[in-house]
Amino acid sequence: MSTFLQAIYEGLINGTVYAMIAMGIALVWGVMGILSFSQGEFLMIAMFIAYFFTTATGFPPVLALPLCMGVLFVLGFCIYKTIIYKALQGPTLSQRLITFALSMVLVNGMLMLFGGTFRTIQNTGMDGAFSIGPLVIAKNRIIPLIIAICIFCFMLWFLNKTRQGKAIRATSMDKTAAELVGINTEKSYSLAFGLSAAIAGAAGCALSYYYYCYPSVGGNFQLFGFIAVVMGGFGSVEGAIVGGMIMGLVDSLTGVYFNTAFKYLGVCVIFMLILQFKPKGLFGGK
Amino acid sequence: MKFKRVISGLLAAAMVISLAACGGSGSGGSAAPAAEAGTGAAAEAEAAPAASGDVIKIGWLAPLTGTSAENGQQVTWAAEMIVDIINEEHGDINMLLAADAGLPNLGGAKIQLVEADTKGDTTVATSEAKRLISEEGCVAITGQLTSGMSKAISVITEQYEVPLVTAGSAVTLTDGTEDYDWLFRYNLTDATYIDDSYKLMDEANAAGHEIKTVAFLSEDSEFGANIVTVEVDKAAEYGYEVVENMTYAANSTSLSSEVIKLKDANPDCLMVAGYATDVILLMKTMKDQDWFPKMLIGQRGGFVTDDFFSALGADTEYVYSTGGWAPDIEKDCIASLQELYPSYSNGIAFNEGMSKDCADVLLIAACINQAGTTDSAALAEALKNPDVDCAQIFMPWESISMDENNQNTAATGVVTQVQNGSYVTVYPENAKNADAVFEAPTWSAR
Amino acid sequence: MLKTLFGDYSKKQLAIGAVLIVIALILPQLTKSLFMYNLLILIVIWSILGMGWNVMGGFCGQVSNGHSMFYGFGAYCVGLPLQYFGLSPWIAIPFGMCFCACVAWVIGKPVLRLKGHAFAICTMALAECMRYICVNMEFTNGAKGVNMFKKGVNPILFLQFKDPRVYYYLYFVIMLIVLAVTKILSKKRFFYYLRTIKGNEDAAASVGIDVSRYKVRAYMLSAAIVSLGGSLYAQYMLYFDPASMMTLNVSMMIVLVAVMGGIGTVFGPILGAIVIECLSEFTRASLGQYGGLDMVLYGCLVIIIVLFLPGGLLTLPAKIREYMDRKASKEGAAK
Predict the structure, then answer these.
(1) pLDDT confidence of B236, banded at 50, 70, 90?
(2) Domains in chain B: boundaries
(3) Pairing mode of beta strands B295-298, B55-62
(4) 3-state DSSP call for residue B141?
(5) pLDDT (mean) for B292-316
(6) Looking at domain B191-323+413-445, what is its CATH homologous superfamily?
(7) What is the pLDDT of residues C7-41, one digit of tens each?
(8) pLDDT average, residue stretch B322-336
(9) DSSP-based three-state secondary structure for C279
C-alpha cells in the first residue's frame, strides 16, 4: 500500500513538470497553430538562470522565479518578433521545422557558452525528507509543487478572467472574427508566445530543485510535453494540465508495477489508446 | 529523336567510364583504390621517416557535442596532454616517451592528435572515421569512449586496415569479433570489473557483514545492456541472490519509480551502470526517498566523471566504483600527470574516466616508436606484442599480454570508494590504501 | 512509359538532367577521398528517405514525424535475417519493404484518422514505442546493435564491398529507380487522388475518393521506400544500433530533407539531401572541434532557408526571377 501511495505521489509530482511544459506548447498551438519544438530549450535556459542565480547569490532558486519568467518572456517575445512572425506567413510544416532548428541553435549555443557540465543546485535550502504516514516526502520537491500550482492558477485566471487573456482565447478560436471585434491579434500572438516561454521558465525554475541541468536537458521532456497536449485536447491549456498529470501517473505506475524499461512505452500506449477513443483528446471538442 | 540518341549516348559513355574505372581496381581486385587512399598518406609518411619535424597523425574520435559532451571534452584534454608530454622533453616524468622530444626511433617525429566529433552518433562516428583515415591520413584511431562507437568504427578500420585501439569495456567487442585483426584493447572488459565487484562483496561477507542480495540498475543503451548481461551471469557463479534487475531509459525524466522498486526490494548491494545524467538524478532521488543500500557499486560510467562530485558534493560519500585506474595507484608518473592536467582542463582533476582512453594514445605512440615506421602492418604487429615497461605507464597493470582476440589479458582493475570526498582504492588487497566501509549509513545518520 | 517519364520536360531541361547524371556518375572518379565517397553515398540514401517521406507528407499532405521507425525496421530487416539465417540482402531488402508496408497497413487506419499536429505527434510516439521495444528485446540484440560485417563473404551475394564506389553506383541506380517510380506514379490516378486529399479531404470524399484507403496506401508506399533507405544504410555501414537510427532527430531530418528541397515535388528531396548533407558534413569537418559551433551554424542556415524559401530550394530560381522582375519594374516605374 505504501508503495502504491508513494508511486501515485511521485507520479503527480512528475506530472506537474510535464503539465507545465505542455501548457506552454498548448498555448502556442492553440493560438497560432505552431507545434513548438523549442519549448524544452526555454526550460533549459531557465534552469541555467536559476542555477547561476543560486550559485551567485546563495538564495534559494524559488527567488529566481520572477527573473526566470521575465527573461524567458522577453526572449520568447523577441524570438516571436524576429523569426516566428515571418514564419507564420509560410506553411505550417515550415514553422515546425523552424522551431526545431531553433532548438538546435539554442542547445548548441548554450553548449558553446557554458560547456556540457552537468550542474545541480546543492543548497536549495530544503534538504532531506520527512514522512507523513507511509509517504516519504522530499522537502525539495515541495517548492516545485507549489510553483506549479501557482502557475496553473495564474494561467487559468489570466486566460479566463483578464481582458488580455480573453483576447488571446478569442484569437485562438477565430482570428478573423477576433480582428472584426477589434482585438489586436498581433499583440495576442506575441503575448502568447512570450507567455509560453515564461511558463517554460517557471517549469525550469521548479525543476532546478531536483533535476540536473545541461544544454540538451530540454530534449528529455519535449516529446512528453507534446503527448500531454494531445492527450488533454489540442491546444487546450486545461487539457494540457490534466494530460500532464495522467502522464506522470502512468509513467510512475508502469515503472513500479510493470517494468521500468517500458515506463515511457506505457505512456505512449495509453496516449494512443486515449486517441482511439477520443480522437480529439480528453478535453477536445473544439 | 536525334536529341534522345545524343543523351543516351552520353549516359552510356558515362556508365562505361565509371564501370571501367571501378572494375579495374574495384570490387573484384583486393587492392581497392579506397584502401590506397587509406594507406596512401601512411605510405607518404613512410617515405621519409627520418627527417625530424615529421608529424604522425593519430585519429581521435570523441563526443564533443551532445549528452556526453563534457566527458568527451575532458578526455580530449587528457589526450592532448599526453601528446604534449610525448612531443616535448619531460625528463622529470617517468613515463614512456616523455624524456625525448617526439618519437626517438623515428628521428624525433612528432605526434599530432586529429580530433573529430562523434556527437555520440554512430553514423557521424563512422563518417568522421573515414575522414580521419583518408583525408587526414591517420595511422591509428582511438578514443571513442563507448563500446557502441568502437563497434561501428571497427567495421571501417577492418576494411581499410587501420589499427583501432578501444577503451570500451563490452565483452562482445572482442568476443563477437574473433576474426578482426585491427581492433586492439589494452583496458579491461566488463567481466573483470564485475568479478572485482563480487569479490569485494565476498570480502564484506568475510568481514562479518551481511551482504546476501544484489539488485541491478542499468541504462538501456549499449553500455548498460552489456554490463547487465555479465552481472546476471556472474551473480549465480558467486552465489548472490538477485532481487531486482531493472533497465531504465537513459536521460530519464525521473527515476522515482525505479527507486520505489529498489526500496521495496531492499537489496544489500546495488550495482548501477549509467552515465552521469542518470547517476546524478538517481543519487538525488535516492536521497529524496531516504533510501541507500549497504553497498552501492557503480560500474564506472557516470560514477567516474568529475560531474559526479561537482553535482553531488558530500552525497557521493560511501559510493563504490569499479575502475581501471585510481588516483592512488603507485606509479611514478601519476603525480606529474595530476599536476599537469588541471592546466589543460581549467582546474578539473585527472580521473578514471579519462585515464583509459589517454593510455591508449600513449600505447599507440609507444608502438609506433617500437615499429619504427608508420606502416600499418608493422604497427599492428607492434600493437600485438608491445614491448613496454609497465612501470612507465600510468595504468595499474604489471605487464601487457595480448590474446588471439587482441585483448590484453594481463590488465587488472581496482575498486574504489568515496571517502572524504575522493575515490580511495579499497580493493584488491595488494593495491588498497584504505579499508572499505562496508555498511554505508542511512542518509539521516550522515 | 517513356513519355510519362520524360514527356513533361523541354529539351533544355532534359539536357540539364542528363548532364547532372553524367556529373553524378563521374564525380566519384575525380576523388580518392573516403570522406567524399561517404558524403555521396549519404546523399543518395537520404534522397531515398526524403522521397519516401514525400509520398506521404508531400503528395498526400499527411505530415508524419515518425518515419525513423521504418528506417530502423528496414535496417533490422537486413541485419537480423543475416544474423539468424545468413540470408542475402538481395532477398532481405524486398522482404523488409514488404514488412514495413504491412506494418504501415496495420497501424495506418487508426493513426491516419488523426489530422495535423496530432498525427505528427502520434507517429512520433509510435516511433518512440518501437525504439523502446527494439532497445529492450533480446532477439533484436537490444541496445548492443547488429553487426553485419563478415570477412571473406561473397561481395556480390552479401553486398559487402570494399570499394565504397560500388555502393555509390548501386545505390545511385536504386535511387534513379525510386525516382522514376515516383515520377511515373505522379502521373497516375493514385497520386492525383493523393493531391486531392491533400487539398481538401472532405471535397475528395465528396467526389467519391475513398480517402482512408488511399491514405493508407500512400503510407504503405512511403514506409516501403523509407525501409529501403534503412536497409541500404545498414548494408553500407554494416553495423547499426537502435539508439542512433530510431530517434526523433532522424525523423525530423527526413522531414527536413524533403521540405528543404521542395515539398511535394519529385526532385525536391534529392536537392534537399544534397544541401543538408553537404551543410552538415562540411560544417562538422571544418568546425567540429569547437564543440557546437557547427550545429549552431547549421541550425541558423536551416532557419534562414526554411524561412525565406518556404516552398523549398526548388523555388529559388523562380524567387530570384520574381525579385529581378520586381526590381526591373520598379526601375521602369521610376523612369
Answers:
(1) very high
(2) 34-188+330-392, 191-323+413-445
(3) unpaired
(4) strand
(5) 91
(6) Response regulator (3.40.50.2300)
(7) 778 889 899 999 999 999 999 999 888 889 999 99
(8) 88
(9) helix
Cα dist from C141 to B220, B296, B351, whole Å: 12, 28, 32
Nearest residue to A105 via CA among A216, A180, A27: A216
Of the candidates B373, B405, B371, the one whose C-alpha atom is nearest the C-alpha of residue B386 is: B371
Question: For residue C290, what is its C-alpha cell?
Answer: 569547437
C-alpha cell at B64: 564533443
Cell 567495421 sits at which residue?
B155
**CB-CB neighbours of C2 under 10 Å:** 7
For residue C286, give the C-alpha cell. 571544418
Residue B253 and residue A224: Cβ atoms within 8 Å? yes
What amino acid is encoded at A68 in this protein? C
Cα Rg of chain B, angstroms: 24
Residues in chain C, total: 335
Residue tagged 563518417 (cell numbers): B127
Cα-to-chain-centroid distance, residue A225 = 6
Q: How many CB atoms lie within 10 A of CB B263?
A: 19
Block residue for cell numbers 575498486: B415
Helix %, strand %, coil % of chain C (to 5): 80, 0, 20
Helices assigned H by DSSP within C238-267 = 242-245, 248-261
Instruction: Give pTM, 2 decimals.
Output: 0.90
- Residues of C with CB below 8 A from B157's CB? none
**Which residue matches cell numbers 500531454?**
A228
Minimal Cβ distance to C114: which of A98, A112, A275:
A275
CA-based R_g, chain A, Å = 19
CATH number of B34-188+330-392: 3.40.50.2300
Tens-place pLDDT, residues C175-224 = 999 999 999 998 889 999 999 999 888 999 999 899 999 999 999 999 99
| C-beta separation of C298 from C280 below 8 A | yes
How far CA C124 is from CA of B59, B354, C134, in Å, comes to: 36, 36, 15
Burial of C45 (0-12, 13-18, 19+ CB in 10 A): buried
Dig out the grid coordinates for B256 from the structure: 522515482
Tell me the count of A-B CB pairs closer than 8 A: 126
> Residue B105 and residue B83: Cα distance in Å, rounded?
16
Q: Which three cell numbers stand for residue B351?
A: 580521473
**CA distances (Å), origin B325, targets A91, A122, B85, B418:** 56, 28, 20, 14
Query: Looking at this protein, which amino acid is placed at residue B129?
Result: A
State whether residue C138 sits within 8 Å of chain B by CB.
no
B436 torsion bin: left (phi>0), alpha (psi -120 to 50), beta (else)? beta
Say whether A93 and C57 touch across the interface (CB within 8 A): yes
C-alpha cell belonging to residue B226: 552489456
Judging contacts by C-beta atoms under 8 Å, the chain B residues touching residue A13 are 256
ipTM surpasses cut 0.85:
yes
Q: Is the distance from CB of B393 to CB of B294 less than 8 angstroms?
A: no
Gap between the Cα atoms of B186 and A120, Å rounded: 35
**B226 contacts C244? CB cut-off 8 A:** no
| Phi, psi of B138, rounded to the nearest 5 degrees | -75, 140
- Domains recognised in chain A with CATH numbers: 2-277 (1.10.3470)
Task: Compute the CA torsion angle C318, C323, C329, C335 (nearest 10 deg).
Answer: -150
Q: Given this model, what pLDDT does residue B217 score?
A: 95
Sequence letter at residue C314? L
